[in-house]
Please model this.
Amino acid sequence: MTQWSVVRWQAARGALVWREWEGQLVVRNARSGSTHLLSPSGTKVLLGLIGSEHGLEIAEIASQLFELRDGGTEEMAGLEALLAEFEKLGLAEPECA
Amino acid sequence: MRVNLRDLPFDTLTDQLAGPGLRLRTGPLVVRICSDLAGVANGLALHYSEHAIEPESGFADFHVSVARPRTFRRWIQPQVAFRFDGRMPFHPLPAEQAFPVFEWGLNWCVAAHCHQYLTVHAAVMERSGRAVILPAPPGSGKSTLCAGLLSRGWRLFSDELTLIEPGSRFISSLARPVGLKNRSIDVIRDFSPDAVLGPAVNDTIKGTVAHMKPPVDSVRRADEPARARWIVFPRYEADAAATLNRFPKASAFMQLATNSFNYDLHGERGFELLAQVIDECDCYEFTYSQLEDACAVFEELSRTA
Model:
């Protein structure tokens, strides 16, 4: 579990405008000018990060947003891939130590 | 006093087109047209007879011409070229396509330049003050559906371009000819015997095309905007029953943004505008094969609150 919990993730808050319909988020990133449609899981994670003042570790995302107390490797790897995708799109970023 | 194109004797029309140009109003826009081609004059006289003509000294949003390029092809397989501010944005096309070339060129002018609006590649129709936006790729039966709905009490805004005004979210009407292609030409001839269709032009890049004259009521009321109430993604499918299903709003947003010519230019304001439009609309996907059935579904839709 330790390998997942060392980095805190934050939403690129100042750059984002978003709207949620029926559990799906559409988000515009002012830095890239791109607009993205997120999956229900992506919606949950990004809204969780936006609502979290100090960001979230991946283990916190798993437990707080998905109620995965002992998240399996597959689920955690899925979350990690999602966060990496968010970072690529400029929607979220890992907090520098 | 409003002067309509039909008030001009045909000789005066051709003289103006060949000389200083004809300033034609279509909705909120004025286009100055120069052309010495009979195909353009005939097309304008037929399809734009109820449109207003602006004075020679008036402002024009676009200055366009449709003319034969001065090349050797003037004598062998003659062509026509569309020019905007003297520049030629497209390759010339065969001379018999003169009127379609004008129509396609004017569509391009609006799509490429009218950034005072959020512009979406979608048809718009109106009923009882509420508009339905119909975004769809070519071949989906969008224009056929529009032409059919016109004979069932809907008002034409456009079969190609949705112009949404930021701030008010009102959609402006252009009320121009409806472009029909291939089989849909005969479908509309059968479905709407009173519809006025221009000559069919064969072998265009879109196949055989013919334009349908916009109804008089749609042209006369072109200064009455409307807000969108429905967004419907139509799709023609052979032998399919007319079926209207809810479409997720988030996906509808993305479809409209993707089909917009200038969503990116509007930045955050464009996002907020589109989001408000989505908020105010019911969104559907619609499959149909029979125009009569399709019109019945839209009749039902128009009765919803």
The first helix of chain A runs from residue 40 to 51.
